[in-house]
Design a protein that fits this description.
By secondary structure, this protein is α/β, with parallel strands linked by helices. The chain has 21 helices and twelve strands. The strands form two sheets. Strands 5, 6, 7, 8, 9, 10, 11 and 12 form an eight-stranded mixed beta sheet that branches. β2 and β3 form a beta hairpin. It starts with a helix and ends with a strand.
Length: 440
Amino acid sequence: MKNQLTDSPRYIAFEILRNRQSQANLAGILKNCNLSSIDKALVTQLVQGVNREKLFLDWVIELTSSCRKIDKDVKILLYLGAYQLLCLDKIPPYAAISESVEIGKSLFKPHVAKYINGVLRSIDRKKSLLKEGPVTGDNIKNISIYYSHPEWMIKRWMKRWGKDFTEEICKFNNSPPPLTIRINTIKTNREELSLKLQEKGITSKPLNFIPEGLEILKNLRAENLTYYRDGFFTLQGESSMFPANCLDPKQGDTILDLCAAPGNKTTHTGELMNNRGKILSVDISEKRLKILSSNCIRLGINIVNIMVSDIMKLKDKLKEEFNGVLLDAPCSGTGVLSRHSDSRWNRDIKDIKRLSLLQKNMIEEASHFVKPGGSMVYSVCSIEPEEGEEVVQSFIECNKDFFPEKPFPEIENRASMGLLLLPPLHNIEGFFIAKLRRKQ
C-alpha cells in the first residue's frame, strides 16, 4: 500500500512535513518528483498551508479529538486533513478524509486509522462553527489562534495599528504571495516581454509601484520558461525591488552591495546602471555568492565583482569609497510571512532586540564606504520599528555628516524615517527602506 501512495501529492506532503530539512528544500524535492504541475502545486499548498495554519489547526484538533496526547506523525495527518477541510474549498471533503485515512492505514494499526477517520469526520460536521474561530473573551488570543500568528506579534501590531489593521496584515500573510517578476531592462522592456509571454498563453499585468515589474496571472513555474533561462527576467517580490530603485544608481557609478547574496538586488542595480560602472557584492557566504555569480551570467551582467567577507571585518580588507552603498540587513522577516510560511514560529521578541543591535552595528560599518555626496540605502523585510525607523534614527543622531532623504514621497507612508511598506496600505509584502545622503 505504501508504494502505491508514493506518487500521491498528499503522501509526499506528509513525508515533507515529517522532516524539517525536506521542508527547507521543498522546491528541490518537487523538481525531482514524478508529479504533474497541478499535483506539485498541491504539495506546495499543503506543506506551506499546514506550516502557516498550525496554531489554528491545533485549536481545531483539540476541540474535536478525545485524545490529549497524539503521536507526531498522526498529528501531521490530522493537520493535512483538517487543512483541506477548512481552508481549501475546492477539495471535496471525501477526498480530504479518505486519502488521509489511506495513508494512516499504510503506516499505523487499524485502530489509529479509525481514530483519524473519526476526528476528520467530526471536523467536517462542525466545519461551519470551526470556521468562525475561537471566542475566548481575549481579542489578542482570538486573533492569534484564528489567523495562526504568535500572540507576541499580534499584541505588538494591535498596540501600534489597532485591531482592524492587524487583522488585514494577518489575512495578507495567510494568502500565497503573487508571482512577480523583474524585467531585465538590459535585454528587453516590460511591454515587449509582456507580449512575448502573451504569445505563450501567459497573461500578466504591470506592478503597482515598480515600472520594471510584472505580475504573472497564471499558476506556473516561471523558471522553466525559455525567457527565464535566457535572462529576460528574474523572480522577485515587488517590495524587494524598492531598495535598488531607491538607491537610484547611474551609469558609471561605483556601488557596494552588502549582504548581497543570492543577488536579486545586485542584479537589479546592474540593470538600472545599464551594465556600465562597477558593483562590488559582499557576503559572508561563499556558497550563496556562487548563486549570485550564476545569476549575473544568466542576466548578462558583467560589472559585478564579489568578495567573501563579514561586513563587520570589511574595513580591514577594503579602503575604497563608493557612490552608493546598499545594505539589505538580516532581519526578523515579519514583513514577508506570506512567502515564508513557518518563519512566524521561529521568531520571538528577543530576536527583534538582538537583530536591532546587529543592524545598528552593520549600518555604522556600511557608512564608512560612502563617498562625500554619495548615498546609502538601508532596507529590511521587517515591519518592526526597532529594525527600521529606530535603526536609522539612532544612526542619524550619531553621524551628523549624513542626512535622510525621503524615498518615494508619492507613496502613502506611516514611518517617520524612511518608507514603511505595509500590506493593508500597499497590497504588497512588508518592507522598510531608508535613504541616507553623506554631506559633501
